[in-house]
Amino acid sequence: MKKAKELGVRTSFDFNCRARLWSHKETSDAIKAIFPFVDHCFCGELDAIYLLGFERGKITSIKLFKIERKGE
């Protein structure tokens, strides 16, 4: 992902988590570490709540969210 961003390639990331492979904390930390290199991110409501810290009941729709970067 980092190399793609260095080359100016737009990137996307789909959570597609596997709870049996990583702990909740490991998954959350890994996803947050990738975010600086992601332009478009796809996730479900529960992923947004449990892995990103969104508050339950405050989400009206999550289909796609874009991480904005300064200067874009």
SSE class = alpha+beta
What summary fits the major beta sheet? 3 strands, mixed
Low-confidence stretches: none
Helix content: 25-40%
What is the count of β-strands? Answer: 3
Strand content: 5-15%
Number of helices: 3
Strand order of the largest sheet: 1-2-3
Shape: globular
Instruction: Write down the secondary-structure element order.
Output: HEHEHE
Distance between the termini: 18 Å
- What is the total number of structural domains? 1
The multimeric state of the shown protein is: single chain
The chain-level mean pLDDT equals 78
Radius of gyration: 13 Å
What are the salient characteristics of this protein?
3 strands; about 70 residues; globular; alpha+beta; single chain
Give the structure's gist in a few sentences:
A 3-stranded mixed β-sheet has the order 1-2-3, with no helix packed on it.
Q: How does this model look, in words?
A:
With about 70 residues, the chain is an alpha+beta fold. It has helices spanning about 1-5, 25-35, 45-50; strands at about 10-15, 40, 65. The chain has one domain (about 1-65). The protein is built from three helices and three strands; from the N terminus they run αβαβαβ. The protein has a three-stranded mixed beta sheet with strand order 1-2-3, with no helix packed on it. β1 (about 10-15), α2 (about 25-35) and β2 form a beta-alpha-beta unit. The longest helix is centred in the middle third of the chain and has 11 residues, at about 25-35.
